[in-house]
């Protein structure tokens, strides 16, 4: 197997900052990254940043730090993104076929 470094998608940050989850769409045209600050960043097949959105808790009264992300997955047609959280909720975001 030959591995080749293509490019960095995200710039390094100061301090502890981890990636919680990653997912490729089934059509290989979208890549989703969930960061430790509960933000989803979407990239196209060339590694270009296309979209970014924040996640929310099941109940806003507990605040943003009351949950973590356990997993993300694209639908079979690559138009929806499901986010599983530790506050026992799954959000499904419609992201569409086109950017």
From TrEMBL:
Taxonomy, superkingdom: Eukaryota
GO biological process: intraciliary transport
GO cellular component assignments: axoneme; ciliary basal body; intraciliary transport particle B
SMART domains: WD40
Main subcellular location of this protein, as a coarse class: other
Keyword Secreted: no
Keywords: Cell projection, Cilium, Developmental protein, Repeat, TPR repeat, WD repeat
Pfam families, per the entry: WD40
InterPro entries: WD40/YVTN_repeat-like_dom_sf, WD40_repeat_dom_sf, WD40_rpt
Location of the protein in the cell: Cell projection, Cilium
Coiled coil start-end: none
Family matches, as PANTHER family: IFT140/172-RELATED, INTRAFLAGELLAR TRANSPORT PROTEIN 172 HOMOLOG
Similarity remark: Belongs to the IFT172 family.
Entry protein name: Anaphase-promoting complex subunit 4 WD40 domain-containing protein
């Amino acid at each position: 197997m030959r591995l080749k470094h293509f490019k960095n998608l995200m710039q390094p940050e100061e301090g502890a900052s981890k990636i919680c989850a990653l997912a490729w769409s089934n059509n290989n045209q979208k890549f989703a990254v969930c960061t430790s600050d509960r933000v989803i960043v979407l990239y196209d097949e060339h590694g270009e940043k296309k979209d970014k959105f924040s996640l929310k808790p099941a109940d806003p009264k507990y605040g943003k730090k009351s949950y973590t992300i356990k997993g993300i997955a694209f639908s079979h047609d690559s138009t929806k993104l499901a986010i599983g959280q530790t506050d026992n909720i799954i959000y499904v975001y419609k992201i569409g076929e086109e950017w």
